[in-house]
Amino acid sequence: MKIVDVVFVYQMKEEAELKWHGRFHHHEKNEYEAHYFLQGSGSFLNSGTTYTISPGIMFITNPGEDHSIVLSNPDNPLTYYAVLFSIEDRDNDFYSLLQHQMTDDRIYQIGTNYRFFFEELKERGMSKNLLLRSSAVHQFMSFLYLVAARNHKFHYGDDSNQHIEKALRIMQSNIFEDLQLTDITEKLQLTDSYFIRLFKDKMKTTPKKYYTKLKIEAAASMLISTEMPVYEISERLKFYSEFHFSRVFKQYTGNAPTVYRETYRQHLGAL
């Protein structure tokens, strides 16, 4: 297996994005594509069939299948990851899994909390370090085996904890605000200390770090898909200054915003 490309699209609403991702296209022999939707409403068109997009749903398309993404409500733009990967005939077991077990039903409701998994997949899968790329391949293969095992209970997609699910929705809906911890806990009617413990136990990170990560993901998408200056992106995402934004962005991605834009824009056209 080879990960060919990974793209993150945050709130698809720019004209160039709508035109590019809304076009009908297909991929070559042995190339599959997974689309994982986090936010928004729309339709996924695949080989003449139209599917409704909802947060937490993943679609897998086979080689040669024409598919397209259509935004249905401009006020509720789509946020998603797309992973293009190829399978060699020699990958017998995995090839069989995709060709048979996952062919009839390639729509999977896995929940919205796999954001970090796909972001890590993008960072490792697109790395110049061959060991990291190999790590991403094994991660993704293991993930797809779990997806195929319908009786597997997804930890990150578990909806049993309503407090965390609601908190995530609040964060995702307020990316362009300066959301404070008390803004969340007051809506959840929880104490700050209890919510932090609950969040760390479920998400393995703090609410502040998770919220910052969401902002960085949004910034990364804007850097790739728009001509917006770095200072304007910083202002929109409510960072203290352009310097502060650049420092935090590099801390999370390993690259300065301008370098990230130059590096990853070349990948946009592959999907």
Write the layout of secondary structure elements.
Elements lengths: L1 E11 L2 H7 L9 E9 L2 E5 L2 E5 L3 E5 L5 E5 L6 E9 L5 H10 L5 E3 L5 H11 L4 H19 L13 H12 L7 H8 L3 H12 L3 H19 L4 H7 L5 H12 L3 H8 L7
Antiparallel strand pairs: 1-7, 2-5, 2-7, 3-4, 3-6, 5-8
Describe the protein in words.
It is a single chain. The chain is an alpha+beta fold and 271 residues long. It folds into two domains: 2-155, Regulatory protein AraC (Jelly Rolls, Sandwich), CATH 2.60.120; 162-266, Homeodomain-like (Arc Repressor Mutant, subunit A), CATH 1.10.10. Helix content is 46%, strand content 19%. The chain contains eleven helices and eight strands. It has helices spanning 15-21, 92-101, 115-125, 130-148, 162-173, 181-188, 192-203, 207-225, 230-236, 242-253, 257-264, and strands spanning 2-12, 31-39, 42-46, 49-53, 57-61, 67-71, 78-86, 107-109. The strands form two sheets. It has a five-stranded antiparallel β-sheet. Strand 3 and strand 4 form a beta hairpin. It is globular. The two termini are 17 Å apart. Mean pLDDT is 83; it is low at 151-160.
Percent of residues in helices comes to 40-55%
What's the helix-strand series? Answer: EHEEEEEEHEHHHHHHHHH
Number of self-contained structural domains: 2
Tell me the structural class. Answer: alpha+beta
The Rg value, from CA coordinates, equals 19 Å
